[in-house]
Amino acid sequence: MPHSFVPIGTVRGSRQESVQDNWGSVECRIDFDPEELDADATLGLRDYSHVEVVFVFHRTDRVCRGTQHPRGNPSWSRVGILAQRAPNRPNHIGVTVCELVAVDGLTLSVRGLDALDGSPVLDVKPYLPEFAPRGEVRAPKWSGELMSNYF
User: Taking the model in full, what pTM does it have?
Assistant: First the structure.
């Protein structure tokens, strides 16, 4: 059964063009739509240091349904789209945990959100340490190389 989603906000003040690295210092805003959220929707959010942002890769047209080289780099083996975090996913949905800098009514200031200016925001959730993975976390060597300068 297909689902549709209505964005609740928009990323503002972030990068205009997709750049693969150095997102850690990027500060931007999430402006929530008052037609979609009540004025008190962010009440209590400033008690958290980080939020998880669900957004749309709105400038991505291409869809990968199979395998590709991560970042198009042939020195890394081809892996399935579900084994990487590329924007050309079947539903173009991105999810990032970022630092919450400030809350001002229906506007959040965040740092480290790897979404472009104008990206539709589908949801924001407080990051709870209890949701962090339990046990050992493992990842392939190429992902560490790929992410070494990402944030």
Answer: 0.91
